[in-house]
Amino acid sequence: xxxxxxxxxxxxxxxxxxxxxxxxxxxxxxxxxxxxxxxxxxxxxxxxxxxxxxxxxxxxxxxxxxxxxxxxxxxxxxxxxxxxxxxxxxxxxxxxxxxxxxxxxxxxxxxxxxxxxxxxxxxxxxxxxxxxxxxxxxxxxxxxxxxxxxxxxxxxxxxxxxxxxxxxxxxxxxxxxxxxxxxxxxxxxxxxxxxxxxxxxxxxxxxxxxxxxxxxxxxxxxxxxxxxxxxxxxxxxxxxxxxxxxxxxxxxxxxxxxxxxxxxxxxxx
Length: 269
Fold this sequence. Notes:
There is one protein chain. Helix content is about 55%, strand content about 10%. By secondary structure, the chain is of the alpha+beta class. It has a 4-stranded mixed sheet. A two-stranded antiparallel ribbon has the order 1-2. A hairpin with a 6-residue loop joins strand 1 and strand 2 (about 130).
């Protein structure tokens, strides 16, 4: 069983943020303004998005009441994507790229500081259900990695996969039931076994060998699917059984309304 028990999530989050920083810091203006897979978003918008939600994550830790009021206002405009963009990206779109990089660095450091000061025993309000601090920081790591993939795809870069992906994979596994509920669907009965090869070559597994279906393959590919950065047919994942196949088509490891990932660029089984 691949768990993240005993692992310092805050340290891994800092390392994941720095890996993305290393990718964007050398970019020229053309790189910062490059279009990403998110419609209408540039590389700078991806960093602005992370900056905004690192700030609200800190707010959720240090002032839950203020965060709850903020969440209420954001929820009131959620049906209008243009309004949400104005709120979450407007200020950052007016910044120079060096200034945006600087405020992202400051905001993420303040988030880590707030988390460490609060400790691991608190629960944190968020846009979905409240979470333990460990799960909360895991979600921030997942967001950083997923939006980092958008950046890498936009500028034609490459990232070395690391075993920090165990956090993203774990989140992908435990959000299977939520993926269905979020779509207003019944959660299928039975289990799906997940067996992944980590970047370091170790095997990570979840679920019983007697499960009704299975997903196997590289951990990076699984993480790309559950964060909706790749269609399962464009990866090396192997699904066995209809439940596993359906899950990989619906999988959504992040909070928010149900969304569909990218379409397949090649046909699958």
